[in-house]
Design goal:
The structure holds 2 protein chains of 2 kinds. By secondary structure, chain A is mainly beta. Chain A contains no helices and 11 strands. In chain A, the strands form 2 sheets. In chain A, strands 2, 4, 5, 9, 10 and 11 form a 6-stranded mixed β-sheet that branches. Chain A has a 5-stranded antiparallel β-sheet with strand order 1-3-8-7-6, with no helix packed on it. By secondary structure, chain B is mainly beta. Chain B contains no helices and 11 strands. In chain B, a hairpin with a 2-residue loop joins strand 5 and strand 6. Classes of the chains: A mainly beta, B mainly beta. Chains A and B meet through strand 5 of A and strand 5, strand 9 and strand 10 of B.
């Protein structure tokens, strides 16, 4: 089965970069997603990376994938108060419509 | 495009009572999911529908939980009778079937408190 490990908490100063790390166990994952959950809300897809890529950039977001080490990271540049949320990195297998969420990383922003 | 709708947003009941949640997915989305999210944890899949058929209900406590998706559109999730440990946010999500990748669109959730 697929499983992920993430740090539970991260605190960053406003304007700095945030880096959220994720380690997954199943190397057959074809797509790796980053979902964001703001307080009191459902989850929304932030970005995703295909397993044959090692980097993807989307405005302030940079996703890095190290398949050898099964390590995924999300970098948020110029972190803002609106980035305060829980971030999840659930993988899924090709064609699989089921994704499994870990506990997520709670990002808090300090002034 | 309208998002996933859920109701009610909040529900407080006493243990052993029954409760039902409703979900209206995004129009055209064949796949519908119900998740349970306990405070401090990630969402746990309870049941997945493809149109009106069940794809996965392996983690649904079938002695007390039931779900249906009549006509392959709206869905209801019922708990009968509720226990204290059922206190959680119940999230509904939907996605297109046959996508290259699986982006799930989530509703705002129903927060259930069992006293």
């Amino acid at each position: 089965g697929e499983d992920v490990e993430q740090s539970l908490f991260l605190s960053v100063r406003e304007g700095d970069s945030s880096v959220i790390n994720c380690t997954y166990t199943d190397s057959s994952s074809t797509y790796l997603y980053w979902y964001k959950q703001e307080p009191g809300a459902g989850l929304q897809l932030l970005t995703y990376i295909f397993s044959n890529m090692d980097m993807k950039q989307d405005q302030r977001l940079t996703v890095l994938l190290n398949k050898k080490d099964k390590h995924l990271s999300l970098r948020i540049a110029d972190t803002q108060t609106g980035d305060s949320a829980i971030y999840f990195c659930p993988p899924s297998s090709k064609g699989a419509s089921k994704i499994i969420f870990g506990s997520g990383t709670r990002l808090s922003i300090r002034p | 495009e309208a998002g996933v709708a859920q109701s009610p947003r909040y529900k407080i009941i006493e243990k052993r009572q029954s409760v039902a949640f409703w979900c209206n997915p995004i129009s055209g989305h064949a796949t519908l999911y119900w998740y349970q999210q306990i405070l401090g944890q990630g969402p746990k899949l309870l049941i997945q529908f493809q149109n009106n058929g069940v794809v996965d209900d392996s983690q649904l406590p079938k002695d007390r939980f039931s779900a249906e998706r009549l006509k392959g559109v709206d869905s209801t999730l019922k708990i009968q009778p509720a226990k204290l440990e059922d206190s959680a946010v119940y999230l509904c999500a939907s996605s297109l079937a046959g996508q290259l990748y699986n982006e799930q669109f989530f509703g705002p959730g129903t927060r259930l408190t069992v006293l």
